[in-house]
Amino acid sequence: MDREEAIAAARRAFGNLTGSRERHYESRRWMWLDHLARDVRYALRQAMSSRVSTATVVLSLALGIGVNTAIFSLADQALLRALPVRDPEQLVLLNWHGEFVGGGVGSDNLFTHPFYRDLRKENDVFEDIFARHPTDVHLSAGGQSEPVSAEIVSGSYFPTLGVEPALGRLIGDTDDLQPDAHPVVVLSYDYWRNRLGTDRGILGKRVLVNSFPMTVIGVAAQGFHGVDWGTVPVIWIPVMMKRQATPGWDALFDRRTMWLHIFGRLKPGISRQQAEARLQPWFKAYLLADTKREGWPRVTDAQLKEYMASRLDVLPAAQGRSDLRISVRQPMLILLAATALILLLACLNVANLSLAKALGRRRTTALKAALGASGRRILAEQLVESALLAAAGCVLGVLLAPLVSRAMLSFLPRQDAAGVALSANLDLRVLLFALAITAITALVCGSAPALYATSIQPVTALKQQSGAVAGGLGLRKALVVGQFALALILLIGAGLFARTLATLRTQGPGFPTTNLLTFQVDPLSDGYASAKSKPLMRRLLAAVQGLPEVQQAGVAGSGILRGGGWNNPVTVQSRQRIVTDDLPMNAISPGFFEALGVPVSRGRDFNERDYRDDGNGAARSAIVNQEFVKQYLKDSDPLGARLGIGDKPDTVAGTEIVGVVRSFHDYGLRKPEAEVFFPLWEGGVGGGTFYVRSRSSSQAAARSIRAAVGRIDPALAILSLRTIDDQLDRMLTNERMLAALAGAFALVATLLAMIGLYGVLSFSAASRAKEIGIRLALGAPRWSAGGLIVREAAALALAGLAAAIPVSWALGRLIQNQLFGVRPMDATTIAGAAAVLAIVCLAASAVPALRAESVSPLDTLRSEWMQPKASLPGNLSAFGAMRSQS
Known about the structure:
The chain has 886 residues and is of the alpha+beta class. It contains 28 helices and 25 strands. The strands form 4 sheets. Strands 15, 16, 17, 18, 19, 20, 21, 22 and 23 form a 9-stranded mixed sheet that branches. Strand 3 and strand 4 (146-153) form a beta hairpin. The longest helix has 38 residues, at 323-360. The radius of gyration is 36 Å and the shape is globular. The relative contact order is 0.11.
């Protein structure tokens, strides 16, 4: 053969040269990575070719991912995150389940110190146990004394948790031997860094704790904030120094006063359930022995039976223990659900825009399929584009998340926020959460346009012309209905929370709050002896009452509207003997009710006749509120009835009721409680809370109060000087946070729904251009063309309303505990939310309706429908088509 003939024969024998090159190319590479790189480059070109649509998608996703990441970050810290200690899953918290014979200082899960000592010696299920009690002390590290959070801890506290010192040593068993014999403290790392400038010379130096000198022996590890994230301690004090840490009361060896939380670390191989079962025989023996100890009070048979029926619960404590966690759990879960709806709404909005782009590129997609592209390749191409947009939204959302977290933390009062271990910074867990929701978002947003792209028939799509633009409109309308439903749910929720907050603020505490100030004084923590504390408090009250800016002032032993105070059952002797449940009590000075503006409706107020200093702590007189009379003395004259504190059979009812005061809110704003007041000056007074009604400006009165207290003792600390309105805001922190954030989320949802509706209406107006042209040519008025678009928007809104109502009813039952003065299906709130969506409908349909009215019938009927460009989103391409025909 000659050369040309030989080459031709060789090529025939070899086969397709291009196919061989492709097989050789594919054999030397990871083709999925090559395809991915091509898809990424194609997605970037598509994104840059329609910048408006891309920006809308990325911003929508950033809002959804950002708020979800922020709320999850705070919820993770508050509800889920384990303590930064050794093997936190082995930690348990003990709980006395049943009736205790005695009293307590604290909220829940309380025990006596003798119980702790007995259990530590005799249990066989724990590696070790420790006890702690949160309190506040006045601390001076060389400067002005300031109130700080503290933790009274047993010697086993740090060893059981496995916490190491950042400096020096920590409190151990050698500091837990004899009362008053171990004046040592451990500082928190944050206090050492922020207030002492990481001064290593602090070791061995003395600080003043409640004016008592104690030696700093160490600094706790960085990142350790105790076992309660809601009350971060600045200082740790040995339990044997309790008398100095809590100078107002000392119950270290009292078996009838509970005040300690007890934690344990389980031995290897012992489960929590096994530990609980093995502890019950020991606990029953302890209860029986307790009834035979000296000092056991006289109780009824029923009380003894209830006491002996108590059991010891062993609760999981990997996250520690926090009263604040209990109060914020439901609001946090509500906000997490709201942010999930925001993310879903953003996904629907993105899917709507992506579907519009897929519709605009249907001919290009059909051409690819006709040239041999498989459905799998087309699907991958669409999903990669969605993933790229979701990744951009994730990056922007992660940058936005700390701002949202700081906004949430701003609802905490500044002083309280400093004592809460919550941070706006994002850690690895939160970033992994952001990546997970980004992946889910990419899948949800990309599924609709991807499935549509793979369903395109090449021959049919390439032949379609004028009617093609209407394809997929039904699915886009369904997405808009979903957006409207989600937005309406969030609007209804925001309205309910806003009305709850407004109702509580309007109702108020039951007395006028204008120009009413409050502040605390704690002489015992400032070094005063108990005998000198009461005369000092009387001098302070007289000095404040004598100020020209002050109209009236009074003192209460326990501050109102703070959620604190003391509770006891009361035995009432009137026509019959009545034993009440635990009731809130307070000790007050003469003038307290007048300062609050609460009238004494019957009998008299306390006066100087109720003052004595004979050492007898039993009160001779008491005042009750109308709620007490309503519950316990409604058939009797309360004046002259006698009562005694306690529910034992030997409780003496030796205190006479001398007055009845109008009920006001003390422990919460949702419902009044029966309450008993005793004269403050009849017993020992370690400190108190002043309530001052000023004549004019609260700021001027505050300056005068500081000056008056300074003239009596410049070293005496004035604590929490604020208005009652400020105190009310602190009480309503959860309600304010829910109302504000739910309102913000509803605003975002409404904006996203409006964007989605705008795009669909624009697309619909373009698809109906011929129909509108025919209507106008047949004599229809131009406003009727716009009416078509407005009616279409109204139909979508009504469909969204119909879908949202039953869902709102179901969700309303879940948030009912957070509402006050309004029902979950409140008609006014629903009507208001519907009115907002009606305004949104009008705003979104205005421009498409005007463009529909401007259609030229002659040009529309003469010209052939022009396909929208693939590079434009649905709404912009539709406008381009209409503009080209007009």
